[in-house]
Amino acid sequence: RAKQEAKGGWIYLDAYEQGQHHARQMVLAGIRRGLEDGEFRLYFQPKVNMHTGEVAGAEALIRWQHPEEGLLVPGRFLPQVEHHQLNIQLGEWVLQQALKQMSAWDKEGMVLNVGVNISAVHLQSDDFTSRLSMILSQYPQITPSRLDLEILETAALADLDKAVQVIKDCRALGVTFSLDDFGTGYSSLSYLQRLPVDTLKVDQSFVAGVEGNDENLLILKGVIGLSRAFGKTVIAEGVETVTQGQALLALGCEYAQGYAMSPPIPASQLPVWVSNWQPFPEWRELRPGDIT
Ligand code: C2E
Ligand code: MG
Ligand code: MG
Ligand code: MG
User: Taking every annotated instance into account, which residue ranges of this chain make up the domain EAL (predicted)?
Assistant: First the structure.
């Protein structure tokens, strides 16, 4: 039997738990080594304004270029670090790297806003605001309002008062906030009113139903209407077709992100994408909210 330290002493693990524990330790050790060896990458996915056609920014999405297993998506390794110190170390690496990339692009003449995903644990860690401020101060040429922090609805819910305070403190630094995967959590209207975020990112599960005539469409109409009523910017994620984008735009959602424009791509490929980007004519003909 294996022993594991737990609150208040040692607990014994059975064979299955021992295996699980071992597997997690292996992943954690791998991530630690991967960080040291520079195996993590930021991929970027463009966000566009469907009506004007302009590129509104890009979302940074972490990847792990694993020496044996190849390119790993976050679903393969982020859950393992959820309640671990490494979560914060990875999160800080992402922030650093995103700003570093922005400043490199600035020098190439591509000035882009960037969105970074922040985990709940990271956002609520004690010195989040001061450490963010420190990182931002290393890039004085980057206006903080060009950095958008994407937080999950569920993350903010865990400790609403704390989240609201951190968001306010960070906004005082100039950064903006988006509520990610919006619609999948359990937020009530009063909760939405209290969260000082700038943008709501409509979850891709609702976007998938936009062409149908089902409940998803009703939810989507509700979510977009609500966002507009609260004066928030709305962006749809997971927009895979031009038709989906058209329907979203007609409902009043102006911004989109998804495979219809581009999958997440390595940083080195983004400038090429931006210079080749041609807005879809179907979108430009519509004014946001044309049918609402
Ligand atoms: P998210 O922030 O909601 O990111 C959107 C996810 O949808 C990304 O998956 C993206 O590749 C995928 N996606 C984009 N367009 C489409 C589309 O048109 N169709 C479909 N089916 N999928 C699309 P990815 O990169 O695997 O990331 C998954 C999640 O992992 C992210 O969801 C985010 O919550 C988390 N994540 C990613 N990078 C980071 C990071 O640096 N830090 C933290 N804390 N979380 C991250
Ligand atoms: Mg996101
Ligand atoms: Mg999302
Ligand atoms: Mg998601």
Answer: 24-278
What is the bridge-based pairing of β-strands 147-152 and 114-117? parallel
Q: Where are the beta strands (DSSP E) in the chain?
A: 2-6, 9-13, 40-49, 55-66, 70-72, 114-117, 147-152, 176-182, 199-202, 233-237, 255-257, 265-266
Contact 63, 72 (CB under 8 A): yes
**Ligand 1 atom closest to Cα of residue 119:** 44
CB within 8 Å of 32: residues ≥ 6 apart:
86
Q: What is the pLDDT of residue 154?
A: 74
Look up residue 289 and give its two tokens. 């909210």
Q: Give the residue, out of 43, 117, 150, with the most ligand 1 atoms within 8 A of its beta carbon, to mutate for a pocket test.
A: 117
Sequence-ordered list of residues with C-beta below 8 angstroms from that of 185, at least 6 positions apart, any chain: 152, 153, 154, 157
Residues of the chain where predicted confidence (pLDDT) is lower than 70: 1-11, 155-157, 186-188, 213, 288-292
Q: How far is Cα 62 from Cα 30, in angstroms, rounded to an integer?
A: 16
Which ligand has its closest atom nearest to the C-alpha of 78?
1
Q: How far apart are the first and last CA of the chain?
A: 63
| ipTM entry | 0.98
Candidate of 82, 237, 243, 255 to mutate for ligand 1, largest count of ligand atoms within 8 Å of Cβ: 237
CA triplet 219, 223, 227: central angle to 5 degrees? 170
Burial of 98 (0-12, 13-18, 19+ CB in 10 A): buried
Q: Two tokens at 66?
A: 């694993």
Q: What ligand 1 atom has the least distance to the C-alpha of 94? A: 41
pTM of structure: 0.93
Question: What pLDDT was estimated at residue 187?
Answer: 65
